[in-house]
Design brief:
The chain is of the alpha+beta class. It is built from 13 helices and 17 strands.
């Protein structure tokens, strides 16, 4: 190759290199076919151009992917439901935030970026120009959720939960904090805690039996007195998941179950229903029961709840009253017969009853079996407070010998009265006239004591 041709080839090579330098990586250098040193140089240059082109293409693809990733990240940050704030981990200066951060603290983005992160918090939460949680997240609490407070531009205090992580970007340590407003949640928790205190006070102290059941009539919660007095449980929680079949006779439990399933089906309550229970040991108890459907916040029935009041004492008292009515009815019949037998005795007793209208029914030993209503008002004792006592214990000690004499006289059909003093409930004495007469009731010798105030 002559010098002129060689120079021309070199110029062509330089021109191709300029094209590559200008960004044209598709260009290629043609060979002369002489396989000389310039052809070898062209081969090497083509190989280099092809490699550079591949690297540049890969770089472009990576750059586009990073840009897309950054756009997605930015979109996720902006569309996040929580406030996100990024600050320099060393200085605490805010470098970025999303829209929800503006909403949370009532400040525009331009008012936040470049400011120290402690402006987000009330004074009591700041320690040495950093918030307490910032210092914790920068140390051993990195990545954990901590509760704190933020303060808005207008001075409103909000409760927040903060999860923060320290990361490095381009040699700079940054901290990203995710702030969730839990103000309403904290209010709800406080309200629920207060409601729990009230519920616990009722369930642990009310004398009535209170219970909540699910749709299968299994206990969700019961009062302490129901657990200890009826179910013989040390802890009300031990009843959870159990039913009446675990504690009551089968017949009683089945009635309760059927009744509760009807309440769940119809939504109609059962109010003041009196129920008798016969226990395995032979004892009998009575209860007044009110049951209602248990509904959720949407009004859907999710079970039943009720309150049961032990009325055994009242029912037994009513039974005693019925017995007393029968006894007094028979007593009146006996008195009428006695009056017919003795005109004088009848007239005298009727006169006394007209004046006194207070009487006691006694057995042969003086034990009180029945009491008229006026007798309770006259003595100050209740009916149950008198029944079962001995009349001799209610008079002054000096009159007890006279009482024995009265019983002897009355036992043979006579009528005897004395002037004495009765013991009052407060321990004092009250003066009365007392008359005693024998009656026969169900072939048993009994006495009626008629008392009138002196």
């Amino acid at each position: 190759m002559d010098s002129k041709s060689k120079t021309k080839r070199i110029d062509e090579l330089i021109e191709k290199i300029k094209q590559v330098a200008g960004g044209d990586y598709s260009t290629r250098i043609e060979f002369s076919g002489k396989n000389d040193e310039l052809d070898i140089l062209a081969l090497n240059l083509n190989t280099m151009i092809e490699g550079i082109g591949q690297h540049i293409a890969e770089f472009d693809r990576t750059t586009k992917d990073l840009k897309k990733s950054e756009e997605r990240y930015r979109k996720q940050i902006e569309e996040a439901m929580d406030a996100i704030i990024i600050a320099d981990a060393e200085t605490g200066i805010i470098v970025d935030c999303n829209r929800m951060a503006e909403v949370l603290v009532g400040r525009k983005k331009s008012e936040l970026i470049g400011q120290p992160q402690w402006i987000l918090h009330p004074p009591q939460e700041i320690d040495n120009k950093f918030s307490k949680t910032f210092m914790q997240h920068r140390g051993e609490k990195d990545g954990e959720v901590l509760e704190n407070q933020v303060i808005t531009k207008d001075g409103e205090i909000k409760d927040v939960a903060i999860k923060a992580n320290v990361f490095e970007l381009n040699g700079r340590k940054l901290m990203q904090g995710i702030f969730r407003d839990i103000t309403e949640y904290r209010k709800l928790v406080t309200e629920l805690e207060r409601e729990k205190v009230l519920m616990d006070a009722m369930m642990n102290n009310f004398p009535e039996y209170i219970y909540f059941k699910d749709l299968n009539s299994q206990f969700l919660r019961i009062s302490r007195v129901l657990a200890t007095e009826v179910f013989n449980l040390s802890d009300p929680k031990k009843a959870i998941g159990k039913s009446d079949f675990d504690f009551f006779p089968p017949e009683h439990a089945q009635k309760d179950y059927t009744e509760e399933q009807e309440i769940i089906k119809s939504g109609k309550p059962v109010v003041n229903h009196e129920v008798k229970t016969e226990w395995a040991d032979g004892s009998v108890s009575w209860a007044s029961i009110t049951k209602l459907p248990l509904r959720d916040e949407h009004g859907q029935i999710i079970g039943t709840f009720g309150i049961s009041r032990n009325i055994t004492t009242r029912r037994l008292a009513l039974q005693e009253v019925e017995k007393m009515r029968d006894l007094l009815k028979d007593l009146n019949q006996q008195l009428a017969a006695a009056y017919e037998e003795s005109r004088h005795q009848k007239d005298e007793l009727l006169a006394l009853l007209h004046d006194a209208q207070s009487a006691l029914l006694l057995d042969s030993t003086g034990q009180i079996l029945g009491v008229t209503e006026k007798m309770t008002r006259l003595t100050g004792f209740s009916r149950l407070g008198l029944i079962g006592k001995n009349i001799k214990d209610l008079v002054e000690p000096n009159s007890r010998l006279q009482m024995d004499n009265m019983f002897k006289v009355s036992s043979i059909g006579g009528f005897k009265n004395i002037y004495t003093e009765f013991v009052k409930p407060d321990g004092g004495f009250k003066k009365f006239d007392l008359g005693l007469n024998r009656v026969n009731l169900d072939k048993e010798k009994m006495f009626i004591a008629i008392i009138w105030e002196k």
